[in-house]
Amino acid sequence: MKSITDFPNLPLALLPTPICKLENLSRALGKQIYIKRDDLTGLGLGGNKVRKLEFLLADAKAKGADVVLTAGGPQSNHAALTAACAGKLGMESILVLKKRGVLSGGNLIVDGILGAQVRFVDTDSYDDVYAEMDRLMEALRAQGRTPYFIPVGGSVPVGCLGYVNCALEIAGQAEEMDVHFDAAVSAVGSGGTYAGLTLGAKLFLPGTRSVGIGVCDDPFEAIALELMQKTAALLEAEAPVTKDDIHIRYHTGPGYAQPSMEGCEAVRRLARTEGILADPVYTGKALAGFFRLLEEGYFDGEDTVLFLHTGGAGALFAVEMV
Ligand SMILES: *Cc1c(COP(=O)(O)O)cnc(C)c1O
What pLDDT, in 10s, does the model give residues 281-310? Predict the structure, then answer.
């Protein structure tokens, strides 16, 4: 198997991100609950995408790219972090966003400050967004530029390496703290974080079950399995990944990016007990799913659980809490 250090990586995030025990929630819920603060990755408003971008933008640089294109919803954390990271590396960014949902405030303010070019496409389908990106890249090449394409969420095998790397980081921290995590819980939005973490857990965190909480109704079991297998192939990992490694539950609420009552309650609960802000689109829903699973006894027999905080603060200033 290859080592993660065999892959080009540009250090962008402040690593390792802290792991802290949530003392008050642990007491209230009768488990040892820890949080991995990937909301504190250090660029822009922080969040999980910086870890993926360390590998994706290293690939972009290696290919001579001078402009990076990515896609998302109007409040995409991934798009804003792509702009932050690309700018730091001296590359321009073009964010091609679906003209749906909240079209001002939040991350759109951040995108503007970061100097990203924002293009809206009036569509419900990413096929149309990708077609527009193809046209833009064609035009850029005709001008002698070298564009680099990153799909929604950066969820391609090279991006997933960021979360394989995170699992390795967690293994080191767990050893240092002398704790064993029986389970790790994370939000699933485009699948790359969960796929990387689950593969990484299989490789570096024996006995840690990786549980994902889907925040939209996409068939993440299949998406995650394919991403895991492709990332494992990239790493030439011997360990076969199978669908038995995948544990995904859903907390979508009324729909992707639409706050749910339970998700917002979870945001308030984390804030009021631990002073930590989650967001109503990803981490709040993941927490709500986690709390629900705890109630259902899903973690019975598992004492120590790590919740991955993936960021998303921008949404707090764009999306209406319910
Ligand atoms: C993108 C994102 C996620 C989901 O990560 P994926 O790799 O897309 O599944 C979770 N939380 C936040 C805040 C995000 O921006």
Answer: 999 999 999 999 999 999 999 999 999 999
Choice from 282, 290, 308 to test ligand 1 binding pocket (greatest atom count within 8 A of CB):
282
Residues 6+ apart with CB under 8 A from 204: 167, 168, 170, 171
CA atoms within 13 A on the CB side of 87: 18
- Is 76 marked active-site? yes
DSSP string, 131-173: HHHHHHHHHHHHTT--EEEE-GGG-SHHHHHHHHHHHHHHHHH
The CA 112 to ligand 1 mean position distance, Å, reads 21
Rounded to an integer, what distance in angstroms lies between the CA atom of residue 263 and that of residue 282?
Answer: 9
For 187-220, what is each residue's pLDDT tens digit? 999 999 999 999 999 999 999 999 999 999 999 9
User: pTM value?
Assistant: 0.98
Active-site residue (options: 76, 186, 210, 260): 76
Ligand 1 pocket, residues with Cβ under 6 angstroms: 47-49, 77-78, 153, 155, 187-194, 279, 282-283, 310-312
Ligand 1 midpoint to CA 144 (Å) = 33
